[in-house]
Every structure is written in C-alpha cells, then in structure tokens.
Amino acid sequence: MGKVGCVFAIRQQPTRDKHTSEIVELAHAVSNTYVAHLGGPAVFGDLLWTEARQRRWMQARETIVLGDGAAWIWNLAADKFFTSRQVVDWYHAKLHLTQAATALHGEGTATTRRWVREYETPLMQGHAERLARTLRQLAQKHAQCANALRREAGYFQDNYRRMQYLETREEGFPIGSGMVESACKQFRARLAGSGMRWSRAGLERLLPIRAAIMSQRFDELWQQVYHLPLN
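Structure (tokenized):
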C-alpha cells in the first residue's frame, strides 16, 4: 500500500470560518514538500524524517503531526517526531461522526444531518471523550447498529487527546490534512490514470521523481542524479 507524507511551514492567513462565517486568522500549510513510498511504514518513516530534517524540523520552535487516526501513524510519530503535537485531521474525525450518525439514522437522511450538526460543535470544542461515552450509551439502546457505534466510540476514545481542535487552532496550528489529500490525488492522477500499467520496480522509481516535481525540486534532483557515478 502506498503512503504519502507532506512537510510544510505554517502561515496565518485571513480565512472565512466555516462555523461562524467570520473572517479570522487561521493557520495554513505553505511551502509543502512531499515524500511517497510503495510499502510499509518503516521505510516511509525514514523518508519522512529525512525530509523533515532537510527542512530544518529540529530548529522549529513548535511542530505538529497530522494524521487520519491510524495507529501506525502515531507509532511513527512517537518514534521520529516524539516532541510534536499530535492531531487527528478534522475531516477524518467528522467523517467518523457522520458514520456514527449514518449507522443510527440512515445514509443521507435529514435526521443524520441534524445529528452531525448537533455533535459537530462539541467535537470541535474538544469533547471527543464525551462523544465516545454517548455512542457507547446509544449502542446499548440500538442493537441493530451496536457494533458500528462501539467501533466509532473506540475511535473517539482512542484519539480524544488528539482532538483538541479549537485549542489547536487558537494556538496557531492547522487542524486539517488537506495538503496530503491533495497530494494523493496528484500522485493518482499522474500514476494511476486510465490505461496506465507499471511494474512495482518502475513505480518505485517514479514516485521520488513525481514527489520532486510536486515539491518544485526536480532541477535539484536532476543535478544530483546527473552527477552520480555510472554503475
């Protein structure tokens, strides 16, 4: 399974708050650079750590690791980026909220949308642990979807310390990993288009080239490769 990572700087920019519709200063990822690996987390972690060091990660006053909640991401963060704040991407958290609502009230129904709106604000305010308790209580009352509700309750319970969204945002950090989602789409568009076929070895060679282009470093990579000794 392929993995994509992004190292970025943070800049405050005037942005319309989706929750209040006010124009506020919010953190955005800028100067993005990317790494990609077709395989497990160990090699990917080494690639990401190398990129972070080249971007002077160690000199940053504060840092953040954003992820979708997968355990391997937090294991990697604990190993390589152990001083960084850990945050579950807001959009994945909301996706799990929607999945809980769908289990209760059906896909795309008005009741589902109302339920999401009701619990979205407490989730933004950092009350994921309370939401986990609510879902466990609902699981006791709704046998037909109890397993799904317990699964979502576990997600929020396991990650509630990483879901302090309002606090994280007020302290000048982004809460969304849209830069990685965008990068995944760009990799797919270039390497997984209609009719494209790659050997694993060929794809592994193309990934760093595509990452260099997206990071606006192709000329630098070309110079490095050009001056390598011939095999």
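The first helix runs from residue 41 to 54. The two ends are 30 Å apart (CA to CA).
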